[in-house]
Structures are given as C-alpha cells and as structure tokens.
Specification:
379 residues; alpha/beta; eight-stranded mixed β-sheet; six-stranded parallel β-sheet; globular
C-alpha cells in the first residue's frame, strides 16, 4: 500500500477557503486504489474562532484518515510538527500551499533540517504564484522565496501545476529548472451541465462567489455599478478575508444609486452558493489570477455564463460559453450592456454556457496527479 500524506490549511467540512478546499476534496475522493491517504489540516475554518463540526480530532472514512489539529500559537506549531514527523514516513507528501507558514513553510523547513525524512514532496501552489497574487504583500513573499532558494527548501521538490500557464508562473517564481507535473485539477462536478431556467426578473441578476480580498478585486465590479444606467442586483457571496478591503467594498456599495443593489451574504454552505449562481443571470469575477478557478467551472456546470478578467485559464471556454472577458476599465460598460439584453438573449447565453461546459467535461481525464508523481520515484 502506497502512503500519501496531505498537508493542507483547510479541508472539509471547512468551506470559507473556497475553491482550493473543493479541489482538494475532489483530489482525495478520486485517489486511485492502493493509495492510503492521511490528511493533516486545521480544526478551524478560515477566519473562524470555533472548531469545525467534526466528531473527533481524527476521522477515518472511505480509506482516508483526516487529522484536525489546533495549530494556533507555539503549541499548535509543535502539534503540527509532531504530526508531520509521525511514522511510518509517507511515500509522498503533498503540500496544498506554498506561503502558509504552518502548512507550506514548516514542512519544508523540517525536511531541510533533516527532522523528517527527505522523501518525495509534491507542492501545489494553488495560484499563489500568479502575478496578481504575488503583487499582494509582494516584498514579504519575495523575501521568503529568496530565503527558500538560499536555504535549499525547494531542493528536490516537485510542483503540481494545474495548467501550462501556472507552470510558467512556477518557473518564474522558483527557477527555470523546476520539476513540474502539469495536471488539471480534479473536480466533483457532473459529466453534463444542468439546463435550468434563468431568473425571469427584469433587472440583471449577478453573483460573485469567493473571498472578499484584494486578489479577487471585488471592488472593481462594485465600483463599476455606480456607472451603470439600468437596474442591476449583485449578490456578493463569501467571507471577508481582509477587513480593510471588506470595508472598502461595503463603502462603495453604500453610495450606489437606488437602481443598483448589492447584497453581501457572507459565508454560505457550498450547496447554497451553487443555488445563488443558479438564481443569477451570470456570474462575475474580476480576480487578479486563478490557477484553476473552481467557481467558474461550477457556474458553467449550472448553465450560467461568466464575466471575468483575462487572468484565468478559462477565457476561451467562457467566451465560447456565452460569457465575456472584461478589461479592468470596461466593467461598467459591459454590465450595462448585459442589463439591456432581452430574456431571450440571456437564455441563449445560458444554453451556450452549458454546452461549453459539456465540451470541456468530455475530454478524457489524465492519470491522477498522485500516479504521475509516484511514477517519478526510483524503483
């Protein structure tokens, strides 16, 4: 039996971390037979002060073992370090982050100091090397990357990129010689898209799903609504990841004209988030960068077109699916034009979104990323 240990900041039933949680859940559920999985994660959701609703600190189900740890403070670091050093050593360690101090930095530091066996490590940046992501707190991140290179923290590490675009971001961040496995992210999405009726409301109904953070650039959409001449309602669904930024978005929404409404719903269960997308005419995201963009795929899966910035792997698929790629200075004009569309036009775009999704899902899957990584191990 091959043993794989996954270290991740958040894992279900956590939801506030967004797409990376659902991607990791799909990765775990689709793991090939013959692989024993151990997941080590926080016992709290993003921004939460109370424990997740799990029956025990260790939950074993469906051939996987999940350890929910209180990683707060110095004792929390020691708990996590102890879990990482638990024997027997795994055949492969999978890190679901680069910059998280506990789940990205600590495991590599322990490995470099030989406090854990220097076994194979597969690191998934999850978009953390996107130019838009690196631009946030850029000095701190670049100092860490330089220190990591000097200390050799990335020596012998293999990187999991979900697209060739992300692979180029990895090479730019850690060096041209980086060893990379390119494998599109796993999903638990259906084989065929839903064909559900759209809202019959006369105003344009939009939704954006994800953390309210500078990387997601929610403000671009909210501020653009001030210059829209037709009725529009925007539902903003997700946790406030940056308090100051959340205040900026709330302040921008508070001064909008009466014909425009913005509703902040906070964190919602995944099923409720999908229902919110179904209830809209389109999903919008002005994100500064995504390595995959799980919410985009989920919108297409329920037959909803997407308006998005040209910073994701989805541009061509979204345009084929009745949506649009929007320049940063064109959000107001684009939303105003969509608000003028007839019900027939919006329904046509919804049908195109579903068809575009079906084409994407019809592509035969590649081997699981764990299989691809394990094939590289010496026999």
């Amino acid at each position: 039996m091959t043993r794989v240990r996954i270290l991740a900041p958040y894992f279900p039933p956590a939801v506030a971390g967004g797409g990376p949680i659902r991607t990791l859940d799909a990765l775990v559920r689709s793991a090939p037979e013959g692989i024993a999985l151990e997941i080590v994660t926080r016992d709290r959701d993003l921004g939460a002060t109370t424990r997740l609703a799990v029956p025990d600190a260790v939950v074993t189900t469906a051939g996987r073992r999940v350890r929910f740890l209180d990683t707060r403070g110095p004792l929390g670091v020691l708990r996590l370090a102890s879990a990482i050093r638990t024997h027997p050593a795994p055949d492969l360690t999978y890190l679901n982050t680069v910059f998280d101090a506990r789940f990205g930095v600590l495991p590599l530091l322990l490995r470099r100091c030989r406090l854990v066996p220097a076994g194979p490590v597969l690191v998934a940046p999850r978009g953390e090397f996107d130019p838009g992501a690196l631009a946030l707190k850029s000095a701190k991140k670049r100092r860490y990357l330089e220190l990591a290179r000097r200390l050799g923290l990335f020596h012998g590490v293999t990187w999991h990129a979900s697209t060739e675009l992300e692979a180029s971001h990895v090479r730019r961040a850690v060096g041209a010689s980086a060893d990379i496995v390119v494998r599109e992210n796993e999903t638990r999405l259906p084989a065929l898209a839903e064909r559900t009726p759209q809202s019959t409301h006369e105003r344009l109904e939009l939704v954006t799903v994800g953390r309210i953070s500078p990387k997601k650039r929610t403000h671009l959409v909210i501020e653009a609504l001030a210059h829209v001449s037709r009725p529009v309602r925007l539902v903003v669904l997700g946790p406030v990841d940056d308090v100051a930024y959340g205040r900026r978005c709330a302040a921008a929404a508070a001064v909008l004209p009466a014909r425009v409404q913005v509703e902040f719903t906070g964190v919602q269960p995944h099923a409720a988030a999908v229902d919110a997308v179904r209830a809209a005419h389109a999903m919008v995201t002005a994100t500064a960068g995504e390595n995959f963009g799980h919410t985009i795929a989920e919108a297409l899966a329920v037959g909803r077109p997407v308006l998005l910035s040209d910073t994701t792997p989805w541009s061509a698929r979204v345009e084929a699916g009745g949506g649009e790629v929007v320049a940063d200075d064109d959000w107001a004009a684009t939303i105003d034009r969509w608000a003028s569309y007839s019900g027939e036009e919006l329904a046509s775009r919804a049908a195109r979104a579903a068809s575009s999704y079906d084409v994407w899902r019809s592509t035969p899957p590649e081997p699981h990323v764990f299989e691809l990584a394990l094939r590289r191990l010496p026999r």
